[in-house]
Design a protein that fits this description.
Blueprint: H1 3-6, H2 10-17, H3 26-35, H4 47-65, H5 67-73, H6 86-130, H7 136-149, H8 160-177, H9 186-204, H10 214-243, H11 247-259, H12 261-271, H13 275-282, H14 284-294
Helix pairs in contact: 3-4, 3-7, 3-8, 3-12, 4-6, 6-7, 7-8, 8-9, 8-11, 8-12, 9-10, 9-12, 10-11, 10-12, 12-13
């Protein structure tokens, strides 16, 4: 029996779940919690762990569902290369899904557990049903929006704007990512760029829920700066894909769009006054870029 059939190598598992890409979801629930005024609740800080588990589950399930297609288009991936078996990938996805829902329930209670369960359901539906269909970008956008709402607790309405900002950008990135192997159409690249700019505008828009204080002004300025950095970095990569919609530029723009989730989350956190958290989160962006050189995030 081969080594991979006993237990996958750590590097193979890291490639299966796109390990460094989890850094791009940590700010989702925190942005939702900031919008709902919950960042001071200690248990909220465990929710990014739940998000990471569910994200990794989705990546493992992605490769399980795509194993036949990847054998033709991406034979270097863990399943077609033989580094991970289909059964192992499915077991990893199942275990991480259970872990994510459990952590969410322990951290946020029954309502948060229900949101996490809904998120887990949409993750599995995306990978097993929606991904080959035109509804794939919408399915992924719903996943991201629910991840933001995970942090809102009993105030989901307060987190609608950050959920929308993350969802609209995710929609554009997902639509563009479908051209990573064979390239895409200019219209898809243009739509992806429009989604990124819309997400930046939503994140930079001041939150006028109270009189503006000095701290609030700092938050507005920080939100604008993070949103500008996000729009410039991601938008430039998408503009290159628009000029040349071949597989290479599209793949590069997709990776940049995924890593761009972090400055977008930082803008949203700043929008609700959590500037310190936003700055700490943004420190993960360079780490994600470096890690992506060793383990692909797409």
């Amino acid at each position: 029996m081969s080594r991979s059939r006993r237990f996958p190598e750590p590097r193979a598992l890291a490639r299966l779940v796109r390990l460094p890409a989890a850094l791009t979801v940590l700010g989702d629930s925190l942005a939702g919690a900031a919008a709902a005024g919950r960042l001071r609740e200690p248990r909220v800080w465990a929710l990014p762990v739940a998000s990471a588990c569910l994200y990794w589950a989705g990546m493992a399930l992605n490769d399980y569902a795509d194993r036949d297609l990847d054998a033709v288009e991406r034979p270097e991936r863990p399943l077609p290369s033989g580094d991970v078996t289909p059964g192992q990938a499915l077991a990893v996805a199942t275990g991480l899904t259970a872990a994510g829902v459990t952590v969410a329930g322990l951290a946020g209670g029954g309502r948060t557990a229900r949101v996490a369960t809904a998120l887990a359901g949409t993750v599995w539906a995306y990978d097993l049903v929606l991904k080959p269909t035109p509804l794939a970008p919408l399915g992924m956008a719903v996943n991201r929006g629910l991840d933001v709402l995970l942090g809102a607790g009993d105030r989901p309405g307060a987190a609608v704007l950050p959920a929308a900002a993350m969802a609209v950008h995710t929609y554009g990135v997902t639509a563009l990512s479908r051209g990573e192997v064979h390239g895409t159409r200019p219209g898809v690249a243009a739509g992806s760029l429009a989604c990124t700019l819309a997400g930046a505008v939503l994140a930079a828009c001041p939150a006028r829920t109270a009189p503006v204080t000095a701290r609030g002004r700092v938050g507005e300025l920080a939100a604008g700066a993070f949103a500008g950095a996000f729009a410039t970095t991601v938008g430039w990569a998408q503009a290159r894909a628009l000029a040349d919609p071949g597989a290479g530029p599209v793949r590069a723009a997709t990776g940049t769009g995924i890593r761009g989730m972090i400055p977008l989350q930082s803008a949203l956190l700043s929008r609700y006054g959590a500037v310190e958290t936003a700055c700490a989160l943004s420190a993960g962006a360079p780490a994600t870029a470096r890690a992506a050189r060793a383990v692909s995030v797409t």
